[in-house]
Amino acid sequence: MGAAPASRYWGCLPILGDLAQQSIAGLGLDRLTAILQDVENVCGTDLLMPTFTTVQELAGRDYPGTGSAGGAEKVSFQVVTAHARSIACLIADGVLPAEDGPRAPVRSVREVSRPTPSPSGRTGS
User: Fold this and answer.
1) Cα 52 from chain centroid?
2) pLDDT value of residue 96
3) Could you tell me the pTM of the whole model?
4) How many helices (H) and strands (E) does the chain have?
5) How many Cα neighbours within 13 Å face the side chain of 91?
């Protein structure tokens, strides 16, 4: 009988096994937090919940809930939350909105987050 395989660790966390696909997008703090807190998406974590709640209050309605119902509207809430977080991080780093140059991304993210009228006349994203 052969020797038992040595345990592998990443920092203090045990590596449970190899990934089925070795090429993946970065995990990131927010995705790791969503996994550890067992929530549907990063907006449900304690990192983004305060912003997510504010987005719902400003929209005047609640998030459509878990599952597949309300797909486009659910994504809209998540996108606005993520963009608000991105803008807050940029501003905290001293990057303010501008027409061009290195500060233009803040303006671009802000404009993408702005609701646009749909063909039905309702405001959505």
Assistant:
1) 10
2) 77
3) 0.59
4) 4, 4
5) 11
